[in-house]
Amino acid sequence: MIRWEALLVALVGIVLGTAIALATLVPMMKGLTGQGPYIPPLLYGSFAGAVVMLGLTAVTVPARAALRRETLEE
């Protein structure tokens, strides 16, 4: 469940980040050069993959540490 939530947050972050970047880059590049920005697919894919991996790692490591602790019994 935690991993699915982390994956969802990472994917939403990628989509929103891409949309915001394109909303600012496209008009600027059209005004400066008359063409849209070129984003190499391999570079974009590597950044997106890194975001997903960092998101999953940032959630999985603390979750495993929390689950390994012993519970307090009264």
Number of helices: 2
List the helices and strands in order.
HH
Unreliable parts = none
The portion of residues forming beta strands comes to: under 5%
Proportion of helical residues:
over 70%
Average pLDDT taken over every residue: 91
> Could you give a short account of the major beta sheet?
none
Helical/strand content category: mainly alpha
Please give the alpha-carbon distance between the first and last residues.
Answer: 29 Å
Shape, principal axes of CA atoms: rod-shaped
Computed over alpha carbons, the radius of gyration is 19 Å
Q: How many strand elements?
A: 0
What does this entry look like structurally?
By secondary structure, the protein is mainly alpha-helical. 81% of the residues lie in helices and 0% in strands. Helix 1 packs antiparallel against helix 2 (41-68). It is rod-shaped.
Topology:
Blueprint: H1 2-33, H2 41-68
Helix pairs in contact: 1-2
Short key terms for the protein model shown above:
0% strand, mainly alpha, 81% helix
Question: In brief, what are we looking at here?
Answer:
The chain has about 70 residues and is mostly helical.
